Amino acid sequence: MEDQKYSSGQLYALVALRLLVGWHFLYEGIVKLYNPTWTAKGYLLSASILKPIFGWLASGSMSSVVDVLNIGVLVVVGVSLLLGFKTKWASVIGMGLLALYYLAHPAFPGLPQGPSEGSYWIVNKNLIEIAALWVIMVFPTAWAFGLENLLSKKTEVSN
Predict the structure, then answer these.
(1) Are 71 and 43 in contact (CB under 8 A)?
(2) I need a labelling partner for 112 at 20 to 30 A (CA). Which of 38, 82, 106, 156 fits?
(3) How far apart are CA 154 and CA 136, in angstroms?
(4) Residue 81 · residue 19 · CB < 8 Å
(5) What's the pLDDT score for residue 150?
């Protein structure tokens, strides 16, 4: 796909999307990391569907493991997207995390909304960001602007 030709405007828009989503992931991870009282436990325990699974994730020692993994994934995905390094992997992992967020509190009619900034019906910000990561995954934004591009040029020069 790297040999496809995109206009400058298309590439700028795709890179901007990658950077914005990356910033959002990194920011969310850093905020949670530096907040000593933050935990995913309440979010997990208030899950609308799949209560046994999310309840187990919120139980005992699993809660602290989930907190560390949540923060770690948010930071790693954010840094990867911002730097343009392994963006396809970061996108897949980010979509997985967001899918878990969505499944804990889906915006389905008749279910309690759970913690949210607004009122949603089927589509919420998690679903939108999953779609954005899907776009980032299928377009070569790291080759347009990112470490993958720089590293590939260094490899070509040394060969």
Answers:
(1) no
(2) 38
(3) 24
(4) yes
(5) 64
